[in-house]
């Protein structure tokens, strides 16, 4: 959905920040230079702005963002009332991004702003989404195994396709952003949401830089619960699979019972049989607890959705004309 080259293209760059006080200024400087380079080299005019979302940082991130805004008024700032998490900070930014094209990227310098020219080029060629694919990421051992397991399970359990190695660094046409805004779910598994909305999507490769300052907030347990959320948000297979397992176990025990009867008739009864009883009771008990746990996790999510709490709360925004949406739904 490219537009003609005579009217300037409205571009909004959405960046979430959480405790990035050390690197925010340098990153915004780099971002501004990349945007100015695109402005100079064309093709066509662009009218850009940057929407920084301060996700309840406990350091002086907000100060750094406001300082950058004083120098460059095209930088707007949304200050959330507390730390809601990256997915929610991004959602807040997308809700406030009223532009023809939106680019989302991390504020820690891992997503090179210099790629934006190539992304816009792919958009001009008629793509609605340009997702950025990390090249040669260096993860090994348990992490790698779990990641492959997750993508395998997800592909098996859900009809939503997740391009592996594609994250939040992406360009989206305004129609895509509008579609995402319509998705009301409180469990913001953005990877799934991005893919679920459809449109013409294409991937571009990029080399991920090292973090400029600070460190990543993702530890193993957080990644695991993120993966569970993702699976339960985009698949009901964990709920449905129990009827198949139940049917299989019931069928097998029926066969086994029949076999015991036939055996008793032809060969007489031998009393022992203790192991079979114990094994079947414990096995079935375990399966029942497991399926209860799965039910519980879905009911928990229904509870979260039914409460219909806002996705985020804006404390104050700077440089955004319309306080369109202060809480997100
Ligand atoms: N971030 C955020 N809220 C959070 C955690 C992270 O807005 O609760 C931001 C963070 O400032 C950075 C981006 O999200 O700009 C990616 O975070 P991080 O580097 O921790 O994740 P990773 O790069 O390891 O996926
Ligand atoms: Mg990072």
From TrEMBL:
One of its GO terms (molecular function) is glycosyltransferase activity. Residues 13-177 form the Glycosyltransferase 2-like domain. GO terms for biological process: lipopolysaccharide biosynthetic process. One of its GO terms (cellular component) is plasma membrane. The keyword Nucleotide-binding does not apply. Gene3D superfamilies: Spore Coat Polysaccharide Biosynthesis Protein SpsA, Chain A (3.90.550.10). This is Glycosyl transferase. It comes from the Bacteria. InterPro entries: Glyco_trans_2-like (IPR001173), Glycosyltransferase_2 (IPR050256), Nucleotide-diphossugar_trans (IPR029044). Keywords: Cell membrane, Glycosyltransferase, Lipopolysaccharide biosynthesis, Membrane, Transferase, Transmembrane, Transmembrane helix. SUPFAM superfamilies: Nucleotide-diphospho-sugar transferases (SSF53448). The chain crosses the membrane at residues 241-262, 277-299.
């Amino acid at each position: 959905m490219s537009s003609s080259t005579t009217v300037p293209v409205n571009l909004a760059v959405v960046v979430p920040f959480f405790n990035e006080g050390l690197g925010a200024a340098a990153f915004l400087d780099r971002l501004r230079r990349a945007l100015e380079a695109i402005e100079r080299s064309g093709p066509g005019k662009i009218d850009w702005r940057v929407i920084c979302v301060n996700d309840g940082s406990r350091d002086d991130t907000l100060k750094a963002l406001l300082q950058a805004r004083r120098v460059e008024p095209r930088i707007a700032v949304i200050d959330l009332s507390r730390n809601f998490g990256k997915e929610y900070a991004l959602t807040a930014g997308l809700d406030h991004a009223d532009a023809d094209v939106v680019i989302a990227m991390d504020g820690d310098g891992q997503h090179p702003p210099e790629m934006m020219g190539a992304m816009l080029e792919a958009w001009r060629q008629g793509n609605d989404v340009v997702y950025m694919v990390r090249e040669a990421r260096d993860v090994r051992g348990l992490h790698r195994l779990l990641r492959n397991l997750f993508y395998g399970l997800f592909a098996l359990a859900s009809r939503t396709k997740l391009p592996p190695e594609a994250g939040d660094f992406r360009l989206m046409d305004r129609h895509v952003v509008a579609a995402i805004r319509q998705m009301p779910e409180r469990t913001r598994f953005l990877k799934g949401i991005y893919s679920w909305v459809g449109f013409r999507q294409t991937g571009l490769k990029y080399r991920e830089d090292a973090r400029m300052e600070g460190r990543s907030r993702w530890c193993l347990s957080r990644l695991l619960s993120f993966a569970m959320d993702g699976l339960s948000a985009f698949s009901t297979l964990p709920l449905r699979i129990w009827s198949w397992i139940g049917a299989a176990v019931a069928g097998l025990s029926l066969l086994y019972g029949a076999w015991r009867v036939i055996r008793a008739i032809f060969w007489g009864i031998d009393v022992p049989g203790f192991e079979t009883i114990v094994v079947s009771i414990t096995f079935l008990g375990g399966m029942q607890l497991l399926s209860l746990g799965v039910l519980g996790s879905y009911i928990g999510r229904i509870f979260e959705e039914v409460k219909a709490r806002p996705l985020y709360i804006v404390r104050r925004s700077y440089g955004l004309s319309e306080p369109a949406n202060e809480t997100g739904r």
